[in-house]
Structures are given as C-alpha cells and as structure tokens.
User: What shape does this take?
Amino acid sequence: MARFTKIISEYLPIIILLFLVSDFLTNISIKNFDSVFRRYSGITKLLFEIIMIVTIIIKYKQFKRNYIVLLSLVLLFILSQFLYATGINYNLENELFHGNIYYFNRYLYILLFIIFIKIMSIEQKVFLKTYTYFEYFLYVNSIAIFIGLIYNIELFRSYEYSSRFGYSGFFSKPGEASYMYIIAIVTNFYFWIIRKDKINLYKIFFFIIVSLFLGQKKVLFFLLVLGLFYGLSYFKYKKWIKIVLLVSIPSLFVFKNEIIKYIMQVSPFWQERYDEFGLLSVVTSYRNLLLEKVIEFISSDWRFWNYLFGGIDFIKFKTEFELVDLYLFLGFSGILFYIYIVYFHFMKNENLLKRILIVIVFLTSFISGGLLLNVSAIVLFYIAIKKVMLPIKKVHGN
Assistant: This one.
C-alpha cells in the first residue's frame, strides 16, 4: 500500500491536470468533428474512479461512517429509480451513459474522492503541487480567452455561433469555467486576507478580470457577494460602504425600470429575452420556467414516497438550482446528502473566514447549479479548501 500511495502521490497532480486537458479535447471534438466518441474527459475521470473504488473496497474497514453514507446513498438511489421507473420503459443503457445513473455517479464522485484521499494519507505538498498546476492551466486558458476575444475564435467562445457574449477558452462548458475561476479567486482571497501578500492581490484582480469575459451571471453574483463581504468585513472604509448600501438599495427600487432598461440596451441578446419572458427569466436564465414545469409535474405525478426518496427523469426536469435538483433526484435524502457534504466535508473544523467563503461558493451554486455535478470543479474546490487553504505555518510546512 505504501508503494501505491507513493505512485498516486507522484501522479495525482498530472491526473487532475488530465481532467482539464481532456475536457479541452472534448471541446474540440464537439465543436469541430462529427466523431461518435467524444467523452475524452469522461473516460479519464472514469479510469481514476475505478482506481478509487478498488482502493476503497480493499480498505473497507477504515472510515466506517463514510462507507455507511456511501452505501446508503446507493440504496436510496436504487429505490428512487424504482419509484421513477414505475409504469415507464426504463432503458438501462440510456440511463447508464446519459441519464439518471450517469448523473448519480457524478454526484457520488466527490464522496469517493474524499474517502480515497483519507485512505491514501497523501502529503500536503502533493496537493499544493496539484493546485499550482491548476493555476498554470488557468493562466494558459486566460490567454486562450483573450485570443478568442480579439480574433473572435468560435472554438474559445462560451456560446459558439450565438449573439450571446462570452469566452471560456479550453473549457467545453462555460459553467465549469466559471467555477474554476471562482475557486482561484477564493483561494487567493483567503491567502491575501491572512497574510496580505500583494502577489495574491494581483492574482485576485487578474482572475476577476478574466472571469468577467466568461459571460456568466453566476460570476457576477459571486463577485457581488464576495465584494459585499469584503467591504463589510475588511475594507478600512467599511462605514462608508454601509452608508452607500443604505443609499443605493432604496435607489435601486426607485430607479429599477431605468436601470433595467439601460442594462438591456447593452446586450441585444438579453433585450430580446427580456421582452419575451420578463426579468426573472433573464436573471435566472429561464430556471424559473424550469422550476414551474417541475412543480406542475410533481404536483400531479409524485406520491408520498417520491417526496422522501425522489424519482424523476433528471435530464428532462433538472432546474439547475443545486439543492432543488438534489431534492428532485433523491428526495429528502438528497437534502441530507447535500448537508453532509457541505458541512462535514467542507465546513467542519474550519475558521470563520473559510466557512464564509465556502458558503458564498455554495450559495452561488444554489442559484446556478452545477458545482456538485461538475467533477473537476468540486474535486479542485475540495483540494483548495481542505489541503491548500491552511494556516500560514502549515502552508509553508513549518
């Protein structure tokens, strides 16, 4: 086992980097070729998942609570599928590669990774190296974003062949790119607050500027909440911030129509959607319409057991509100899973600053979805929170 741990320690930074590189290969395949096989990113994650599962099975006597949660979750998912499949032609192959089983595996991935990391007892310097590789990748991706912006390269756009603004570089999904830059901002913000290093401040500004070119509203929401937190907690002129908030909030309500009109004029894409669907649909990217659709469905089709254990066609009815989707997928047990992951594996035993940063990220995920479902993002967020964002003495290895 010691030899295996050494091998994983040596190659873990490369494995995580392969998650990101293979995503770029998937991006190229989807946008430029008619190839049948496009899941380069998926196969990379699956191979690593097999290694994690085999290791967990071999060391099943350790970390019993995590194993109980893992097995309970699998059983609850099976039960939810029986509830969903009643009276429906349940296609196992489709569910495995595209449907509910596929999405359940993505939800489960972070728990498998957490158990695996605890079993392996990998040194912190390995995770620091992993995070360093991650930031290097973001720098290269940022260059791709600027090149895409200057030369209007469709490959690097968030929404190719669309009038909607946004460039995500090597990432095939703009939502994934958003969380990657959010992770980098949070990590450097944490270190800047605790050690006031200007390098971290420069990184924060750089990642913020690049993230604005992604064209994602979740980034704007995250930056707004993070900015308010900094202004009210650490900014030396925070009394002025409070005064500005007291003045600006009532002003927003008074002049909201003029403000909305001006913002919509800046983006013809959103102006058309605003005229057709209204402000709430523009702000939520139509998630409110998806939520209305799913509420109508569960009101007519769900029974008592569904409310406890879920049971729904996830592709058809997901709303992209993180907690709502987990409830639809696994019922009340999905909410418990969310609380278990967020509190026990991210927030427990952390200082107040880190807890608030975690809440801000998961709050962003709650209104926009995708964090727990995005394997690369949630794994890197866990590494950043638990293995990189440590007290100064531990970071420097003293």
In short: The first helix runs from residue 2 to 32. The mean pLDDT is 86. The radius of gyration is 22 Å. The chain has one domain: 2-395.
